[in-house]
Design a protein that fits this description.
This protein is an alpha+beta fold and 430 residues long. The protein contains ten helices and four strands. The protein is elongated. The two termini are 26 Å apart.
Length: 430
């Protein structure tokens, strides 16, 4: 490395140090997202809604008390009658309402599982958007490096041409590469702006400077190593699949509730009535008539509605069962895919690292060859392009590897703040 290049690196490091010291890390961005992400708020609200549905279903099994007041006018002498009534009832046997309460509880459990899934999805979305910004920054850095290098080659080619060392075609070729690299820089800058907006969509605020991955990152296979272990864990703990199971349970309980509509119901009632007014006989005025009794209700015919509700519940159960099977198959595929992505990421990080080393050596050799006249301007331009492309590919592979591990943990139902904290340790220190 030349003294000039070494000085430039030291200057760049000095300028970037204050920015890195104030940069946001993954956990800070996650905290912002958790406080303001609409999708997580929606999941929490739905859980709250189903919690109230459980309360309402349970209320139908608890005592019911109502008061009533009426004022009547007699048709003959115009006398008035005041009535005050009280009705207190308690369900003793009603299997239909009991099964509806069970179904409401199962649906609440399903929403709680969906809330956990939303929390894990938020972790994955934050990490994806975070590393999306870093990947876009790496692509922009590659594009800018190409543009700067090609601009330098334009100047060198022009000088060599004016000195009679090289032909005019070398100048035009360098200008072509430089012009194309300018377009690539514009596109990379646009992609970075979009990636930052994607992160802002989750956090509700414009992101600042983000901490990048540390220079050294170990490419380790997942633990446990067997794909079947990850699939089994996913089938057991994935919250979305758990929600589907609870949904199927609720559907079966709704079938039982529909069948119970044919059964008798029994309740205890306590009714009282007090009458007063000019239209009431003196001996009845002010007296409270109280009745305590058992009420047995036997449904006989409801126009076919009861059987229809039962068939409807069966269809809903069948749909829930098929939905569960579809979700199970999709989860198996997703888990295996993310497992393979981690394994591929390990191999890709190693291959791109080797490509960077080889391209760096090739570029140095090409520069030396051009100075000696054994390599052409085209060779040098291609070597520069290959070296920056290899660096960008390695950086993208690093990001994809980290994300693949998080997505595998999400599929297995094991993604949370602790896993994000582990990734946070892989970022550069301030």
């Amino acid at each position: 490395m030349s003294l000039r290049h070494r000085a430039q690196c030291l200057l760049a490091a000095a300028l970037c140090a204050p920015l890195l010291a104030s940069a946001e890390d993954l956990l800070e961005v996650y905290a912002q997202a958790r406080a303001s992400d609409p999708m997580l708020a929606i999941a929490a609200s739905l859980r709250g809604e189903h919690g109230e549905r459980v309360t309402q279903a349970r209320a139908a099994l608890l005592p019911q008390w109502s008061l009533g007041a009426a004022e009547l006018r007699g048709p003959q002498n115009g006398g008035r009658e005041h009535q005050l009534t009280s009705s207190l009832s308690q369900v003793l046997v009603d299997l239909g309402r009991l099964r509806q309460w069970d179904a409401a509880q199962s649906l609440l459990s399903a929403e709680e599982a969906r809330l956990r899934a939303a929390e894990q999805a938020l972790c994955a979305r934050v990490a994806g958007a975070y590393f999306g910004v870093l990947s876009a920054q790496a692509s922009l850095g590659t594009a800018q490096a190409n543009e700067d290098a090609f601009a330098q080659q334009v100047g060198q080619a022009q000088s060599r041409f004016e000195s009679g060392i090289s032909a005019a075609v070398d100048v035009e070729q360098a200008r072509t590469y430089h012009a194309l690299s300018q377009g690539a820089t514009v596109q990379a800058r646009e992609a970075l702006a979009d990636a930052r907006e994607a992160l802002a969509q989750i956090t509700g605020r414009t992101p600042g400077v983000l901490r990048p991955l540390a220079a050294e990152l170990q490419a380790l296979p997942p633990e446990p190593l067997a794909a079947e272990a990850w699939v089994n864990q996913a089938l057991l703990a994935n919250p979305q699949l758990q929600a589907s199971r609870y949904g199927l349970t609720a559907s079966e309980q709704r079938i039982e509730a529909a069948r119970a509509a044919h059964l008798p119901t029994l309740s205890l009632g306590l009714d009282s009535e007090r009458r007063s007014g000019s239209a009431v006989a003196p001996q009845d005025a002010g007296r409270a008539n109280t009745t305590l009794g058992l009420r047995l209700s036997i449904p006989l015919f409801a126009g076919g509605a009861t059987e229809s509700l039962k068939r409807q519940a069966v269809h809903q159960r069948d749909a829930a069962r098929e939905g569960l099977e579809s979700a199970r198959r999709a989860l198996v595929r997703e888990t295996q895919g993310q497992y393979q992505a981690v394994m591929s990421g390990v191999a890709l990080m190693r291959s791109t690292r080797a490509a960077v080393d080889a391209a760096t050596r090739a570029l140095a050799s090409t520069r030396t060859g051009q100075a000696l006249g054994t390599r052409t301007m085209t060779d040098l331009l291609l070597a520069i392009q290959s070296q920056t492309a290899a660096q960008n590919a390695h950086e993208q592979a690093r990001h994809r590897y980290v994300l693949a591990k998080l997505l595998l943990q999400q599929a297995a139902g094991a993604l949370g703040e602790a896993e994000l904290s582990a990734v946070n340790l892989l970022l550069k220190d301030s």
